Amino acid sequence: MKVGIIGAGFVGSTTAYTLVLKALANEIVLIDLNEVKAEAEALDVLHAAALTSPCKVYFGGYENLQNADIVVITVDAQKSLNGDRLELLDSNKAIMKNIVPDIVKYAPNSIIIIATNPVDIITKLVLDYSQFPKERVIGSGTVLDTARFRTILAEELNVAPHSIHAYVMGEHGNSSLVSWSTATVGGENILSYAKRIGKPISEERQKEIAAKVIDAGFKIYRGKKATYYGIAASITKIIEAIVKNQKADLTVSSLQEDVFGIKNICLSLPTIIDRNGAHQSLLPDMSNEEAWALKNSAEIMDKFDKK
Questions:
Q1: Phi, psi (5° rounding) for residue 172?
Q2: Radius of gyration for the alpha carbons in the chain, expressed in angstroms and rounded
Q3: Whether residue 165 lies in the annotated active site
Q4: Catalytic residue among 47, 165, 172, 279
Q5: Is pTM beyond 0.85 here?
Q6: DSSP label at 135?
């Protein structure tokens, strides 16, 4: 499995490192305008590979994407994040216009995974610029948000995160839907379970947890001016589902042809990921209030997509 990573910053280099730790690639090429940094990051990861799993890791140009199975886009304009990822759209849109033609030229059969924010709008732009089949353009979406939600619920209820099924859907951003009506543990609704074990989650507490989930990335950014471990793990999780043909259910951002009447936008829903990319998005049964919130998120994505 050959993986190309465009952007050798914190997210790109950490993704390369995580892929090596999980033995998911046998060849990784890092591409960055700063070739000195890309070479240094590649060399560092290569040395880690010697202690984990054999993998050819190097820096290069877009021509080195030839025969890449997966191309990961992590590059961005490195603007300060002030509270809304949508603020990054104009600068990162210009970057996509420059790099996508080279991906198409050198890796026409690849699956593209996008982490650049605002990830839902950028995913739609990459889909439009590349003209790839919709299955082969995937945004990291709310995979990380969903993990954050499950982590908070796990701490709240003393249950392992992997045993909790709960989703964050819609935009990876301020309009995302933290869904309580679809959250379960052992098949039981999470709110019913919490009440039954004597740890009820009030409506006020639900709002606090939802706000904590949505603000988590900004809190980390405020503390260390970057976020990269969680998003790199999310990208790696998507790649693992592809490499191992897992048919895994992940809340990636992909093209949705109709979300409550909003047509042809990219946002996150539970989606089956296999060797061929993103297939068969699912729309969980949810409360009317949550359905309205998801539609609102879709409308926001539609508005920015048409800019």
A1: -85, 85
A2: 19
A3: no
A4: 172
A5: yes
A6: G
